Amino acid sequence: MALLGDWGLTLGKWAGRPSARVQKDSGDPAVGRVREAAEAGNWNAVREVLEARPESEDRVELLWAVGDTTGVERWIEPVLEAEPEAALPRLVAGIRHISWGWEARTGAFASQVSREQFDVFHARLRKAETWLYEAAEREPLWVSPWYGLQVTGRGLQVGQVTARRRFEATTRRDPRHLQAHQQQLQQLCDKWGGSHEEMHAFARASAFGAPGGTLLGQLVAVGHIEEWLSLDSGQDAAYMGRYEVRASLHEAADHSFRHPDFVREGAWLQVLNTFAMAFSLAGERDAARECFRATEGRVTEFPWYYLDGSDPATAYRKRRAAAGR
Fold first, then answer.
1. Helix, strand or coil for residue 125?
2. pTM of the full predicted structure?
3. Which long-range contacts does 125-128 make (Cβ < 8 Å, 24+ apart)?
4. ω before 303 within 30° of 0 (cis)?
5. Distance between the two ends of the chain, CA-based, in angstroms?
6. How far apart are CA 23 and CA 1, in angstroms?
7. 244-277 pLDDT tens trace
8. DSSP label at 192?
9. Which of 9, 95, 170, 235 is the most buried (most CB within 10 A)?
């Protein structure tokens, strides 16, 4: 199956194999600017970048660039005190406390995380929830506070009913918010108290309930990768090789990045990386090559860190070589 639209000509002319490199940002120059301002503790510059990107245009990536910056938790406190009625500082403080909380927990399996680490993790997430609720109260139409509450809810294990309500609160404000759907899919994973059946049903309903060309087609691929991760060696490969799994990947690809209305905006590169990984695991070499070619060596950390957490680019290169690209 070939890509449709303008991509066909572009890919037909593409030759060679570029070096693989992790692209941490979507390519948006505002991400680098807001990160530099956060590192410098320059609230005025941070606010200027964030306010220039309205919620209606999805500023999650910008917020997370600030939230992942060490030291924000120190300089945001005086800002909160100086601007007691402002929503934006509370949103920034909430997002930072989420990232700061996961820094304490680390990415280790729960059995390898100490009681002290969990205590710090939960304390920071509860603090994040306070700031996020306050931001949501001040700006009821904003999407980001509710998305942040989806993330804290998973870490605090608020349960499926509350998690669903938070997801619905996010998507009432932005029905096709990719990150919100990604969080809800994780919530429905077996490892977070859901089931494979619920996860796949949600992924398909979200993807095919959206217009053609949607980024939400990625959810179908993520669902299959998640089930693959849950299986023992041998069973995982057998699962990805099933006819119905391979067929569902192609169906989702046709409705997503192969659709003529698909555009290279937002998280499009992550979508292509995800399908590249899923097709390669499924043994669909032609489809995987198509995706690898379209990414042009630009590697997104998700989902490749599932294969190599310390070096996602190496995992990408190995799978690309196996696909014959």
1. helix
2. 0.90
3. 125/97, 125/98, 125/101, 125/152, 125/155, 125/156, 126/152, 126/156, 127/97, 128/93, 128/94, 128/95, 128/96, 128/97, 128/98, 128/101, 128/152
4. yes
5. 16
6. 27
7. 999 999 999 999 999 999 989 889 999 999 999 9
8. G
9. 95
